Amino acid sequence: MGLKRIDKTSAVPLYLQVSEGIRELIENQTWRQGEPIPSENELMEMFNVSRNTVRQAVSRLIAMGYLYIEKGKGTFVSKIFFNHPTDRLLGFSEEMKLQGFDPISKILTSGVFEASEEIAKELLINNGDKVYVLKRLRYSNGLPISIEEAFIKYNSFEGLLDGFNENSSLYSTFMEKFGVQPYYAEETVEASLANQEETVLLNVKVGSPVFRIKRRSFDRSGEILEFVKSVYRGDIYRINLHLRRIV
Known about the structure:
Layout: H1 14-27, H2 40-47, H3 51-64, E1 67-70, E2 74-77, E3 82-84, H4 92-98, E4 103-114, H5 117-123, E5 130-140, E6 143-153, H6 170-178, E7 184-193, H7 196-202, E8 209-218, E9 224-233, E10 237-239
């Protein structure tokens, strides 16, 4: 068990250091979903801190959703949380692997279709132009996480999906077949509720919270590579923002 070292000379409060240490043990799955965490006494010994420090750290993680209390039983690890990066452009598989999870995909739709008005507007093409549509159900560690639907200009990337399968990476395919790769993206996120189809695919209840994410990815020259509409489970997926005050 790799414990985060507590630095008692640091300006960072001890309870924050302990909470980060516990969070890392949860995110690397040393402590797994649904399992009880060690007792207060054990945590005090593990991190060499006071009871009050442990209690503050645990309270913080309960408020953040990492832990929950069952009255009379103890404190338990909540569901695994998956973090959506906002400081770098990654594909789903890259994103999950960097967090130590095992991603797999199930292809729901793959083929060439006529662009709707919405898709044509996003890809800067004409209504009815041919586009590739790749719709996949994305899993991580066996859990359905998101439904992702990508739209790509057919005329710019003819042959893109030839031989594409559930183990293939779209970003890798762009590079291998056409020598291009996503360089930057524009993304919007909306809070929403799951519809009937989404509840079945994501294995959640009707009306469960979801994130709806729309992304346009561009290559280095500014050409649009794809437009993607994704739906992510709101109960196990988080979006972390990195903010800096400008003075």
